[in-house]
Amino acid sequence: MVPMAEMKNLSPGSESVSGRCLGLVGGLGVGATVHYYRELAKAHAARGCALNTVILHADLDFLLKLVTVRDIAGMAQYLSHIILRMQAAGAQIAAIPSINPQICAAELARLSPIPLVSPIDATLESIRTRGIRRIALFGTRFAIESKMFGRLAEVEVEVVTPRPAEIEAIHAMYIALATSGNADQAQFQALRGIAHTLVQRDRLDAVILAGTDLTLLFNEANTDFPHIDVARVHLGEIMRQLFAAPADPAHRIN
């Protein structure tokens, strides 16, 4: 055991360069939060330093109600209070590992005291980089029907809307994943089947996995259809911004 007097002289991360402190809004849902925490810890360990983070748990049921009635201002206010608490605990950059709250991204950016790392911005950049032209979305009904809240209009891409029964099936399974934090083989096979149908029937370049809790089902090893994993590209952008030099303009965007 290290004596208290000696602990005062210890500096966490003193043997390596640590990134900025990340404020992670958790609970939207729990499975995605755990995935982000695990992957960020692994990515920091690969750089030879410890993850520096603050996580606060948000109320998923409350947020879903606000999304359903499109209370954008209410969502932004609620999330900004969480970010303010994380800033008080030392967070320098914030991220929300969930897609539905991005519907209030513009309002939240105005209220947030620290920069936000956007999963949608990261996804749009991935679409541009890969030259993708024809896509469909997997996620909640709100994300699918709004074409990810209208943001996909910012890139030259054609968005194919799944058929109503397909949207209902995707939405129901996604909400089950987000609220339970658990996944099973039946859900994997059902969503995989829908993805293959869309790719073949609608001649897609990729399916956008536009729901972070889909990481409970899909990973790089088992996803056998062309896709962009929003969680994966978001995690990559979070790491980039955490370790960006202060003068880097990326530190001030989103």
Describe what this molecule looks like in 3D:
This protein has about 250 residues and is of the alpha/beta class. The chain folds into 2 domains: about 120 residues, Rossmann fold, CATH 3.40.50; about 110 residues, Rossmann fold, CATH 3.40.50. The chain has a 4-stranded parallel beta sheet with strand order 2-1-3-4, with helices on both faces. The chain has a 4-stranded parallel beta sheet with strand order 6-5-7-8, with helices on both faces. Helix 2 links the parallel strand 1 and strand 2. Helix 4 packs across helix 5 and helix 6 packs across helix 10.
How would the blueprint of this fold be written?
Blueprint: H1 4-7, E1 22-26, H2 30-46, E2 53-57, H3 60-68, H4 72-88, E3 93-95, H5 105-111, E4 116-117, H6 119-130, E5 134-138, H7 141-145, E6 158-159, H8 164-180, H9 185-201, E7 206-209, E8 227-229, H10 230-242
Parallel strand pairs: 1-2, 1-3, 3-4, 5-6, 5-7, 7-8
